[in-house]
Structure prediction request, 387 residues.
Amino acid sequence: MPLNKNATIRYQALDKCFSDFRHRYYIDDLIDACAEALIEYTGHDSVSRRTVFEDITFMESEQGWSIPLERHKDGKKVYYRYKYKDFSINNQELTADEISQLKTTILTISRYRGLPSTEWLEDVISNLEYRFGLKSHSDNVLSFEQNVGLKGIEHLSTLIDAASNKQTLSIRYKNFEGKEELWTIYPYYLKQYNNRWFLFGWNEKYDSLSNMALDRIEEIKLTDYPFRENKDIDFNTYFDDIVGVSVGEKARMREWATKNRFVDTIILLPKNLLASTNIPVVCLVLRKKSLHKDGVRMIDASDLFTNHRYKNYLSIGDIMNVYHKDTDKVSATISFEQIEENDFSWNVADYLNQKEVDCPDGYTLARIEDIIHFPDVKRSTDYHFGK
Prediction:
């Protein structure tokens, strides 16, 4: 039968006790040994007397390891020990169930042959195939969408390591318009979709989760910045309701409304504009037929406000002043093709350039944290002028 993690931990603990000829292990000692092992590896110690007896029965069976276990009486008590000092379940041949599971695993990982950074798999898989009689011409029962020539796949190994080791990254990314941005990313998850790989991670610049196509990543650098833990997103269920790599009904709604030309204008409003929240709010203008034949009008009005007594105010006149002006920083008509290429995102910041900071002649822009290191202090986004 397939072994679960807790059972495997208990079997190893019992095997260690049975192999120890210097001590006598009674049933209560065996229970304690299993509990200690479970605490060490899982953090809990839930194990009963009945469970340990069932484990011993399984280990003695042919489905287990047929262990040569002896029971020695010591008064009214009994202690357990292997008949042979050199016996251990770790020295035995694999069971039929283990061989079956291993064959399935070999067939699965063999699909990654030929991918960059997986050359080491070739020797491992070939050796296992030989030992377990798995011929290379066996029929495939599993298929991955894979393209070994796909641009960006060379980053896969680095990103897997960074996500596994919780390593903050500096990523130079080229968007669908061909413009490059430099982002600080906390990598969480990698997903393949439609023959492309995507990285999901927290984007410090936008303070939100971003998905990045690996074929648009130009450069990756490891950094020493503290890692931002993922405490909110369960990627085991994140894609249960999905279109592509965008999530759920909202994604389907955006795709449907965009393709049917119902979206006329999207306006990014300032922070602290509404009484109920101080986060930025988006104004979405929908029409049965958009006034813009070639795309969606997008306006970044996040700075078009006046402040009075700690409250921001925005006038319709301020928006209309930029509505008819084309500038890639504040207002522009984004083609339907561009929106579709960007997975039907309605995020204004994905299309309009971020505002630049004026820099005097003879000076260059740099982040303060790139010049002075502040340990255990949240990094600032303010700029410092320096030659």
